[in-house]
Amino acid sequence: MAEEIFVSAATGAMRSVLGKLGVMLSNEYKLLKGVRDDIQFLKDELEAMHKFLVAMANVEEPPEQDKLYADAVRDLSYVMEDKIDKFMVLVRREPSSKPDSFMELFRKSMEKINKIKFRHNIAKDVKDIKIRITEVSDRHKRYMMDPSLRATNEKVDPRLEAMFKDASLLVGIDGPTNVLLKWLDNEDGESGHHHQLKVLSIVGSGGLGKTTLARQVYNKLGADYDCRAFVSVSRNPNMASVLRSILRNISNRNASPEESIQQLIEQIREFLQDKRYFIIIDDIWDKNHWYQTLSSALVRNDCGSAIITTTRNIDVAKLCSGSQGDLVYELQPLGVDHSKKLFFKRIFGCEQNCPPNLKEVSDDILKKCGGLPLAINAISSLLTTKERKQESWDRVRRSIGFDKGKNDDIGDMKYILSLSYFDLPLDLRSCLLYLTMFPEDYKIERQRLVHRWISEGLIKCRDEEDLFELGEEYFHELVNRSLIQPVGIGYDGKARCCRVHDIVLDFLIHKSAEKKFSTLLSSNPKSDCIVRRTFLMGNEDQASVEKLDLSHARSLGAFGSDVKQLPSFGKSNALRVLDLCKCYGLRSEHVKDIGRLLQLRYMNISETMVMKLPREIGDLEYLETLSLHMNLQELPESVARLKRLVRLFVGTDAKFPDGIGNMKNLQELGIVDAMKQSVEFLEELGKLTSLRKLKIRWASESGEASDKEKTLMSSLCKLDACKLRNLSIELWSPEEDATFIGRSFFPNLHSIREIRLGSGWITEWMLSLVNLEKLCLFSCGHEIVQQDVERVGSIPTLLEFRATNDFVGSISISGGFQQLRRFDMCARTTELTFEAGALPNLQELFIRWVSFELYDSPQLTFEAGALQNLKEFSLWIRLDKLESAGAGLDFGIQHLTSLDRLRVVIDCAGKQPHALDMALADGVFKSMADTHPNRPTLKMMKGYNYFALHDEE
């Protein structure tokens, strides 16, 4: 029977403990007399405590005595789970069928004795915990305050100030205001006649100034309408009160408290039926509030009416704008200049009045604020109370945080962010708090984060849902709610990574400390502090790291090449997550004791210098994710014992042991170099019937199909008939047999989604693959001509086409590539033309431009009607090409009607460019961006290789 594993910041390990106690009460575990009754008592008590913790989780300012009780109960839940886990591991170890020698017989006898001894220990532990639970409950009852005596401090919503702020005090709001005014402008310039209702949505994180922006537009346009209203919905609204407020604003009539929501909707609709109205609905949190109530009341007439909604949720914003989904304005943080203006205006009146000794510390503080107006106002307000001495400002710089500042503005900032935090379900809150396990400004990979969430038990599984897919939903929900910043948004609209705004991270650190969820070693925790989750940066005192008590730790991460030492794993019995990715200073000896981490679920030692695994790794029976260094040569035989392993990531150098067929739960595997494996391994590969994603590398040794090839093909066919849905193949062939790819023995599998072609060339076999989505060509010596482009374009399912091969001759792209979303090419052409109607669904275009003649100017043309959905255009181009083209360079990017981002890498060909040359380059592309109808964002970089284009993906 599998026990449920679920942990949260609010309830600790309580739900997991309840599940495991239920398992212990089953007949699977033999318990000593009396222990079963004690466990049943614990289970009953903990169920009541669990309900209390869930209720407490939604109380934003709980009484101190309740907080102490909740902390004590959470601590107990972790202690209990650690003891239960230790018991389960030792009792459930399966003995071998029959001892082969006296020593084996002696060992098995000692195991039985130890198990009896351990059952006595667990009996004692259960009784001790029973006593502690009783003491905690009694203490809470003795000192619980009478609810009638509790003080109530009603918090005034700080956004009220934003609604009525003097426009002269605002900074950086003119640009966004003008955009919204333009969106609301009637096409023919006439007011009030026969225009459809426009619904605009402003979306962004808390503290960006959405309410302030909406109020400015309201003040500028309100008088032009027959009636208007500005109402706030907030997180837990009384919708009847919201509707009464709308009715009162538009008609000056107070509705009776007895009138129902339906009656209020009917009155509002009747009044607005023939009116040109302007209504702002501020701070919508839930789709239902708009869909079920507000949109029903606000009648859609043809009088030129307008509605503006503000929200923190992108999905809500899109729903509100309806069919006019393009009228969603994503409010961005203030730029550097506007941030400085706001900051210095509040403290000194202007930047010029700032003392020179405070300039540098001011820049550091502003970087921390990250363009968030609320944060800038809060910190500047705090600094106005400080002496104008560098030491005082340095203390603020070092200690910006919600538990440090005590002024009202810091409290307002905490309140705004708390609204978003408490609007999350409990499991999503825990996943958000887990982001405190990464350093400031760190780019967090989505898949890595989700795997860690799963291993910690933070994702609540519903029915038969796939945990990874559910974890990705959690990630995208946090993006939608503007709580994390998306990085590297792909053509599927999903972010590959995320970052956490510094101010949001400070808030999360504060909340995490309240819940004792994670511990920052940089914060100098007390010596008696229980560390459950923490990370190392390499700047810690080495002696302290060696002595670090990880006996209660569940997650340990490390970041950067400065990490050269790890704490002892001797007592790390509770560790679930060990993430050492990119710690280049760590070697094989640092993980020699990982076999002791019996609860480990996730281990990532990729991009380290760990080149050898200890054979004890096979003892980690709970391990689910294992990510290894790409240059690791061989996996120990014991890896085949990891029966719960779900994901195994290795490099192409790794040789696998036989016995992999035992890994029945394996769902992801890569990258496997098939030629380095035994025939037995390739045969057992076909037994991994749960495999969903597989990456293999295949390099043929001869022109004839070998035994390995035949065995591999047989296994791939078996997997294709089971659960395999995503097969990525990297293919290489000997130079003398460049056409081997596509021979009759290579199957046409439905699961093939990606082909990476290292040598050989495009064949009929590739063109016949019915689900091929990605094709990457990096075949040296093969040039791509017009005919090749047309052949690849005929693949109907292709979403992504990358080629480091040179496109040569005159290339014209018109038809084909109907589904292509990303095109990455190296152009050595004399002319490259994208004709009208070409690449209708393309969203990302990458071009590295090289021509035969050193001073040939680029002949790149985008015709009108081409690439109508292109969002991002990235270009690598040599500086001398720009010099030859001069200021008249024109690609026709104005025809790219959906362009949002323009990125340019200027290759200086290894030379130090003259300032005037770079100014010319900047001017050329700035002019392109400025004259484009969409005013796309422009990013210019200097670089000496193509990969500079991909640094920010």
From TrEMBL:
GO BP, sorted A to Z: defense response to bacterium; innate immune response-activating signaling pathway; plant-type hypersensitive response
Protein origin, superkingdom: Eukaryota
Keywords assigned: Coiled coil, Leucine-rich repeat, Nucleotide-binding, Plant defense, Repeat
Domain Disease resistance protein winged helix, residue spans: 437-507
Record domain Disease resistance R13L4/SHOC-2-like LRR: where: 552-848
UniProt entry tagged with the keyword Nucleotide-binding: yes
InterPro entries in the cross-refs: Apaf_helical, Disease_R_plants, LRR_dom_sf, LRR_R13L4/SHOC2-like, NB-ARC, P-loop_NTPase, RX-like_CC, Rx_N
Example of a GO MF term: ADP binding
Domain NB-ARC: 195-348
Keyword ATP-binding: no
A matching Pfam family: NB-ARC
Domain Disease resistance N-terminal: 13-98
Record family assignment: Belongs to the disease resistance NB-LRR family.
Name of the protein this chain belongs to: Uncharacterized protein
Organism: Hordeum vulgare subsp. vulgare
Lineage: Eukaryota, Viridiplantae, Streptophyta, Embryophyta, Tracheophyta
Gene name in the database record: LOC123395250
